[in-house]
Amino acid sequence: MPPPAPGDREARRKDVSEAVWQVLAARGFGGLTLRAVAAAMGVSTGMLTHYFPSKRALVTHALDLLEENTAQRSRRARPSAGLGGARAVLLDLLPLTPADAGRSRIWVSSWDLSLADDALSAQQADRYTRLRATLRPFFETARARGEIPAGDPEHLAAAAVAFAHGLVVQALFAPGRFPEEVQIAMLDDFLTGLTLPRPPAGGGGPSPGR
Amino acid sequence: MPPPAPGDREARRKDVSEAVWQVLAARGFGGLTLRAVAAAMGVSTGMLTHYFPSKRALVTHALDLLEENTAQRSRRARPSAGLGGARAVLLDLLPLTPADAGRSRIWVSSWDLSLADDALSAQQADRYTRLRATLRPFFETARARGEIPAGDPEHLAAAAVAFAHGLVVQALFAPGRFPEEVQIAMLDDFLTGLTLPRPPAGGGGPSPGR
C-alpha cells in the first residue's frame, strides 16, 4: 500500500486526535492505551504505531490535545481589569457545561499521570505558575481600584486557583449537587470574601482558633 | 509447596499491602499493576493472583488501604466545636508533612480511576458527602457562637473542602512554593474570610463584577 497523500495524512491525523479525545473522555488517562485508541478508530494497533511509536508519544499527543482544546474553548467575555476579570478567568475553569465538565474531567485525570513522572510534573507545576500569573494582574488592579483590601496578589491568585480547582473535583463527582448556578454562587461568595475589609495582620481581629 | 500456615498468611498479607502502598506512592493508581506489585515483593505475578484474582481486586484492596492509612494518620488535636474544629479537620487534609503528601498524592491519583468507573465514582461522591457532613457541625457551632456571620453551614463546608483540596493539588505539584507554613497561612486567610461581616445578600455591597 502506498503511503497516504499529505491531505489524507492530515485527515487521518484528525481522526486519530478525535479517537484519542473519545478515549480520554470515557476512560481518562488511566484508560489511554494504543489498543483503546485503535479500537475507537476501528484500525489495528499496528497501524496506530505509525503515529505513536510508544505509549509516551500517545500521552504527549493527548496532553497537547487537551491544551489545544482548553485554549480554544469559548471564553467568557473578560472585563479588561479588576475583580470582574479574575471572576471571568475563574469561571472558565469550572465545569459549568457538559463540554467544560468533559475537559475538566480529563485535566483531573491527567494529574495521576503527571504526579508519577518528573517531566510531566514540572510541566503541570508550570501550568499552575502561568495560571496564577494570569490572575495576578486582575487582583493588582482590583487592589489599586479599592475593590479589595491590601493583600498579596500572588497569594490571592493561589487561593483563588485552589478554590476553583477543588470545586472542579467536587462538582465532577456530584454534578447534581453542584449545578452551574451553585458553582457560580460559590465562586461569587468566595470573591465577595476577598472584597471585605480585613482585620490588621497579627492584630486582635477574629482568629480561626489558633 | 504446602499452603502457608495462618500466621504466615497474615504476615504475607502485610507484605502484600506494603508492596501495594510502595507502588502507589511511586506511581499512583495509573502504575498499579499485578506485575508492579509482584516485582516490589520479589515474587511472581502468578503467586500474587492468589491474593488478587483480578486488577479490580487489586484496586479495591489499594483503595481500602488508602482509607485505612488515612483513618490511622495522627490527627491534630481537635477543639470540641466551632471554627477551630473546622480548622483542625481541614489541616488534616493538607499535605503538610512528607507522609501527608504521600497520602494526598495517592488520593489525587485515585480520582482518575474513580472518574472512569461508576461504582468508584459513587464511592468518591459519598466520601465528599461524609467530609462535608464532618465539617458542617463545626460551622453550625461557629455560627451559633457568633464566630462567623449567618450562612448555610453546608455551603461553607463545600467551600472549605473545595479550598483545601485545590490547595492539596497545587502544593503537590510545587512543594517548594507551598511549604507547610504557606499552606497554613492560606487556610487561615480563607477561614478569616469566613468570619468577616458580609453585606446583605442581593444588597448594595461590594460585588465581584457581576
Automatic annotation (TrEMBL), chains A, B:
One Pfam family in the UniProt entry: TetR_C_6
SUPFAM superfamilies per UniProt: Homeodomain-like, Tetracyclin repressor-like, C-terminal domain
rRNA-binding listed as a keyword: no
GO MF annotations, alphabetized: DNA-binding transcription factor activity; transcription cis-regulatory region binding
Key words of the record: DNA-binding, Repressor, Transcription, Transcription regulation
Domain of life: Bacteria
DNA-binding region per Swiss-Prot/TrEMBL record: 33-52
Boundaries of every HTH tetR-type domain copy: 10-70
PANTHER family: HTH-TYPE TRANSCRIPTIONAL REGULATOR RUTR, TETR-FAMILY TRANSCRIPTIONAL REGULATOR
Protein name: TetR family transcriptional regulator
